[in-house]
Amino acid sequence: MELFIGEVNLHPEVWNIADNTYHNRTKKRGAWVEICRVFCEGFDEKDERKKNDICTSCIKKWRNVKDNFKKSLNKTKSGHAVGSRRKYIYARQLSFLQTAGAATETQSNFYNNEIKEEVTQPEEPEQPPPLASVLRKNANWI
């Protein structure tokens, strides 16, 4: 499993959301094919369906390992004393995920120096027509 994690680490388009190619499906698929070539002997000789099955199983394996690592991080609450909780078995190898996306720049629609407060009058809801005129219209119709 350590070799698998190391190989995934070499392809940031698979795991790093800050990477420009993270959202490029073609590049990501190509990276998974490269990973599968390393771990599956004779990958290139297999038919397309078998290749897809192998890639899908590798992606599922990665997702499982990554999700379990994230869950183990979430269980360790900041500010709490470290108890006897064991670290995730692959925590050291997956430590690169902790910085994944940390460098992404967020955008805000608030300006630090210029916050304009506008006082607006709430719009009054439209009043329904008086009940008497509705009744008269209905009476004329009959």
From TrEMBL:
One of its GO terms (biological process) is regulation of transcription by RNA polymerase II. InterPro entries: MADF-dom, TF_Adf1. GO terms for cellular component: nucleus; transcription regulator complex. Residues 3-102 form the MADF domain. Pfam families: MADF_DNA_bdg. Residues 118-142 are annotated as: Disordered. This is Uncharacterized protein LOC112692799 isoform X1. It comes from Sipha flava. The lineage of its organism: Eukaryota, Metazoa, Ecdysozoa, Arthropoda, Hexapoda.
